[in-house]
Amino acid sequence: MSNRADNTGLLVLAVDDEAPGLSEIKYLLESSPHIRRVLTAFDAAEALRILRGDYDVEVMDRTRAGLPPVDAVFADINMPGLSGTDLARVLGAFRAPPALVFVTGVEHSEAVVAFEVGALDFVTKPINEDRINKAISRVVERVAATPAVTPEPTAAEPQDDEVIPVELGGTIKLVPRATVRYVEAQGDYARLHTSDGSSHLVRIPLAQLEERWENAGFVRIHRSFLVALPLVTELRMTSNGYAVVIGSGDGAKELPVSRRHTRELKERIVRPPKSSWG
Q1: Architecture of 163-270 per CATH?
Q2: Positive or negative CA dihedral for 127, 130, 134, 140?
């Protein structure tokens, strides 16, 4: 059974930190009759944001339907921040990972590493049309042979942990969602507060995280706060209304609960959904 929702061609993502290389691979991919649409990213962090559906409704809809976010990723290996092999390891943790093809000018020894991290093919630069078409054919065969997976789990089912790429001073850190205690809105951005006491600013609106993380046990308590419900230890009355306490002891954090969210929060605390938090 194919994991394709239609027969109109493949949706693929091309990733290369050099503009000429990205333009070339995009052109060659779009020249293939098997390719319907090509998304592009200049580094692995941007690629992960695209694969999460941050910028593209089709990618998000495919994930919800139990399909890979894209059918294939064509990526360079040597990129600043997260390398192509780092990206490959993250893709391997997806519920429905896309096929991965490395398109790069590195030495043959790197090809061995590429296949160790699950790459379907390894195309060396300079790229020629025949070689890229051979890689596309392998992707077509992989997609046709891959069964559909179960759609995104409901709130009562466990689901894989998401990894959020965070950029700071030229360094990219991967932050597992399971380490996030609460999220604070900061304009069009959100600040992730984690269990080790650190915080990370990400270019994602709080409303988008609320929708995406609802099934992972996160709940909105205020226009400025989203909290991991399993980590809430108290709901208390204060002089300004209700507040929640996350954690205990010296690491406890008190956050306000707005009046409009109080009733729903009480109901969720009394009848909390099962989640993948451990």
Answers
A1: Beta Barrel (2.40)
A2: positive
Residues 6+ positions from 121 with CB-CB distance below 8 Å: 101, 102, 134, 135, 138, 139
What SS3 state is found at 192?
strand
Indicate where the chain has its CATH 3.40.50.2300 domain(s).
Answer: 10-145
Q: pTM of the predicted model, to two decimals?
A: 0.61
Structure tokens at 142: 């992989």
Q: With the C-alpha atoms ordered 130, 114, 101, 82, is the resulting torsion angle positive or negative? A: negative
From the CB of residue 94, how many other CB atoms can be counted at a distance below 10 Å? 16
> 10-145: what CATH class?
alpha beta
pLDDT digit string, tens, across residues 77-135 = 888 777 888 888 888 878 888 999 998 876 555 555 656 677 888 888 888 899 999 99
pLDDT given at position 114:
58
Cis peptide leading into residue 20 (ω within 30°): no
The CA distance from 235 to 246, in Å, is 9
Sign of CA dihedral 150, 53, 176, 208: negative
Buried b (16+ CB within 10 A) or exposed e, 175-191: bebbebbbbbbeeeebe
In whole angstroms, give the CA distance from residue 167 to residue 202.
8
Residues 96 and 230: their CA atoms lie apart, in Å, by 26
3-state secondary structure of 248: coil
pLDDT at 273 over 50: no
Angle (CA) 238 219 191, round 5°? 90
d(C-alpha 61, C-alpha 168), whole Å: 30
